[in-house]
Write a structure and sequence with these properties.
The chain has 214 residues and is mostly helical. It has helices at residues 22-53, 59-81, 101-111, 114-126, 175-178, 182-189, 195-207, and strands spanning 132-139, 144-151, 162-168. It is built from seven helices and three strands; from the N terminus they run ααααβββααα. α1 (22-53) runs antiparallel to α2 (59-81) and α4 packs antiparallel against α6 (182-189).
């Protein structure tokens, strides 16, 4: 069975300055993300042991741990690729001239305008209670984009939604640089959004046929 591995960053630690400093990127990726990968793999081993021994006393905790660590791994893997240096095309908004017109149209259709979408995702990310994420996700039943507040890594999520753009609102993502000013960090994040990556994720999500009918 394949185990989870820590992906390489698509850029160096200093690539996202001044929005995110190199120390944060290094700690965030090499320590925090790595811990979620290890946690997911360790939990899979513990579940295998429980199956082998037919001992299920800790099943509730193991299932919760797997959801937490695996979701943390997945969201962080998206997060790194969702960002790009402003000098390499990060930031701004999705435009048809940049080859992401379908995404731009979907945002306008789902939220009314890019400005309204930006305001909603900014507010959702900045006001997430405790630790969590602000997420733009594709919802396959309605075929529209939605914004979600994700608590921890796995709570408060619409089942079946596919994340395409994620803003990490955990303190470890910003505290060394922004202190307790989470809203300043979220506002700055818009300067490094990689719309090419978001568009690819949107297209892939839209191409998946949901196996649910009503």
């Amino acid at each position: 069975m394949a185990i989870y591995t820590l992906p390489e960053l698509p850029y160096d630690y200093a690539a996202l300055e001044p929005v995110i400093n190199p120390q944060i990127i290094e700690l965030h990726h090499d320590k925090h993300h790595a811990a979620y990968v290890k946690g997911a793999n360790d939990t899979l081993e513990q579940l295998e042991e429980a199956r082998d021994k037919d001992q299920w006393g800790s099943i509730n905790g193991l299932e919760k741990n797997l959801a937490f660590h695996l979701s943390g791994h997945i969201l962080h893997s998206i997060y790194w690729n969702n960002m790009n240096s402003p000098k390499d095309g990060g930031g701004g908004e999705p435009l048809a001239a940049d080859g992401v017109g379908d995404l731009a149209d979907a945002i306008t259709e789902s939220f009314g305008s890019f400005a309204k979408f930006k305001a909603q995702l900014t507010k959702a990310s900045a006001t997430t209670q405790g630790s969590g994420w602000g997420v733009l996700a594709y919802e396959p039943i309605s075929g529209r984009l939605i914004v979600e507040q994700v608590y921890d890594h796995q709570g408060n999520v619409g089942q079946g939604s596919v994340p395409v753009l994620v803003f990490d609102a955990w303190e470890h993502a910003f505290y060394l640089q922004y202190k307790n000013q989470k809203v300043d960090f979220i506002e700055a994040m818009w300067q490094v959004v990689n719309w090419q990556d978001v568009s690819k994720r949107y297209q892939a999500a839209k191409a998946s046929v949901p196996l649910i009918s009503f």
